[in-house]
Write a structure and sequence with these properties.
By secondary structure, the protein is α/β, with parallel strands linked by helices. It is built from 18 helices and 30 strands. The chain folds into three domains: 416 residues, Rossmann fold (3-Layer(aba) Sandwich); 86 residues, 2-Layer Sandwich (GMP Synthetase, Chain A, domain 3), CATH 3.30.300; 65 residues, Histidine-containing Protein, Chain: A, CATH 3.30.1340. The chain is 30% helix and 25% strand. Helix 6 packs across helix 7.
Length: 609
Amino acid sequence: MNAFPIASLADVRHIEALPYRAFMAHQTVHAALAATAERFGQRWALTSIDTPELQAPVRRWTHAELLADVRRAANLLGEGAGATPPRVALLLPPGPEAHIALWGAETAGMACPINFALDATHLAELVRASGADTLVAQGPVADLDIWPRVQQLLPQCPGVRRVFAVGGAPEASDFAAELARQPGDRLLWPGPEDGTRLAALFHTGGTTGAPKLAQQLHRNQLHAAWGAAQMYGCTEHDVILNGFPLFHVAGSFVYGLSVLLAGGELVLPTRLGLRNAALMARLGAFVQRHRVTLLATVPTVIAGLLALPLDQAELGTVRVLLTGGSPLPDELAAAFEQRHRIPVRNILGMTECAGVIAIEPAAGPRTPGSCGLPLPHTEVQALGSDGSPAAPGASGILRVRGPHVGPGYTDTARNPGTFEDGWLVSGDIGHLDAEGRVFVTGRAKDVIIRGAHNIDPGLIESALLRHPEVSMAAAVGAPDAYAGELPVAFVTLRPGASANAEAILAAVAPHIAERAAVPKRIDVLGALPLTAIGKVYKPALRVLATQRVVDEQLAHAGLADNVHALVQDMQSGLVVRFETDAASFEAPLREIMKPFALAYTVRPRSHPP
C-alpha cells in the first residue's frame, strides 16, 4: 500500500483523482496484514503490558509473528466448520489475544466482538442474534468477571458448539494451547479474496432491548483503517497507546488496524486498558519506556490526563493526541495543548461505517469545533429541513457515503432512517464549512426541546467546562409538565475543588448565549456514568433526571409513601414503572403522568420484577 499523508483538502482531492486501488490495494484484512508483514516483518506490532509494574516484563509480537498467530487462529476457528464459515463471538478484554482472535475469526469467517461488561442475559441475546457457533472468552482472572457470565450464558446459547478460554478454564479448550498445534505459515481454510465478504458484526445502541448488530465487510474496515492512518500521517515508526476494547470500533480499526497496516506498533495497557488506575498513575513513565508517539483517548480521558501531575518531558515522545466518540470541548483541547505542547486531533465516526467519517489531519491545524475532513472517497452532507444538501455553514442532519459504509443491520427492519439509498444517516446535527471540514453541534436525540425551542446541550456543557472548578459536564433534558423538557446539567469537580451547584450555576449562566438554555438545575456528582470506552453515558443521566421529576411529582401529590417509581431506559425510550399496594392510586397516577410524554405502567407491589 502506498502512503498518502494528508494535511489538507487538496491532499484528499489528489488521492481521489487516482484509481481507488492506488489508495487501498487489498480486498481482505488478512491480505493487508500479510502485505504489512512482508514489508515490516521484524518490526514490533503488538506489545502487551500485563501488569502496571514498570519493571515487569512485557509480551511482544513482530508483524511476522502476529501474522503467523492470526493464521493459526484462522486455522483453529475454521477447523471442523465444513462448508459454512465459522461465526465467532468474542468476549475478550483488549489484550493481544483479542487482536489475534478478531483478525483470525475474520480470516476464517465472521467475528462478533461483544461488550463483556453486559449481563449474562444480554450477552446471550447477542450471541444468539449473531448466529455464533464458536465462543472465545477470557478465562477466570482476578480483575475481570467475564468467565462467570460465560457459564451463565452458555445454557441459553445451544448454537455454540465450541468454547475456547484465554488463560484456560476447566470447561473449555485452552486458546493458547490450541493455537500452538496449528501451522502459522499458511491458511488451511483460505477464504475468497473478496472485499464484499462479511467480516464482522458489531453491536451498537444501549444495553437494553433487542440486539442491534451492524454488519461490516472487509472493504469497510480496510477503508476506515487505512484512511485513518493517512490522516494521522502514520508510519512504521509510530507507536500508539491503545487501551480501547475491541468490541468498540475505535479499538479495532480507528486506533488498531490503522496503525498495524502502516507497520506501526500497538501498546496495549493491561486488560483494564486506561481504566487501570495504577497504570494511569505511571502513565508518563510508560509513555517514555515504550516511546509512544500517538495517544488514543476520549474527551473524558483528556480531562483525566489534565488532572495528573504530568510535565511536558514525560509525554515528550507523543506527537499527537487522538480523540473522538463524543464532542470535544475547545476549552479542553486548548488546555491540553497549552500544558503539554501536543496537538489534539478530533475524530468523527460510527460503528456502522467501521468507526471513521472524518478526522482532523495531524499535519494540519486544529480548527475549534471541527471533526476534520472526510476520509478520501467519502461524501458527507448536511441535510436541510427540506431534505436537500445544505449550503456551507448551514446546519442539518449529517449523512455519509463511501466504501466504509456497511450494508446495514442484520435485522433489516432497523435500516430505514439510518441506511438510505447508499447513505448512512448519522443522527448528528452539524454542518460543513467552505473548506469541507465537518462540524457536529449535537445529536438529534440529544437535543433538548423546550417548548418549540431546540437547545443544543453543547452550549451548556461548553460554558460549564470553562468554570475553573469543573472537570466534566453533561446536559440533558428533564421532563416538564409545561415545556416538555427543561435543561438540567451534571458536573464533576477538579481535585480539591469545593464549589457547590448554586455557585457554579450563578457563575456560568451569564455565559450561556441562549436564556432558554440556562439549566434549571445543576447536580454535582462524584463521577459521571461512562461507557466502556469512557464516553459520558447520557441515557443514565436522563434516567436520573427523570427519576427526580417523577419522585417530586409523587411527593407533591402526597403519594410518595404509597407508590414506588422506577424509571428504566428501554429500547422504546424511558418507561416509568409504578408499584403500589392499592388499585385506588391508579387514577391519581394517571393525572400525574398526563402532562408528560412518558410511557408508564402500574402494578401491585407484590408483582415479581
